[in-house]
Amino acid sequence: xxxxxxxxxxxxxxxxxxxxxxxxxxxxxxxxxxxxxxxxxxxxxxxxxxxxxxxxxxxxxxxxxxxxxxxxxxxxxxxxxxxxxxxxxxxxxx
Length: 94
Known about the structure:
By secondary structure, the chain is α/β, with parallel strands linked by helices.
């Protein structure tokens, strides 16, 4: 596999025609905590590339972690194109 990029709403509007010339795979932030990334569904629909999704975990216990794991699947399933892989982005110890 060649180039992979990580994208969330922070990247704003993206020219996917240009990106497709340089990139082979995209990893989208689909959600954070209990919120869907505001650009995820648009990006997933428009990118024209295979993609995976990640969820930025905010859970502080097992019950919250299970709830967030279900949430990422629910968010990803809202897309008309399904991701090839799911990731959990855990950036702190709890």
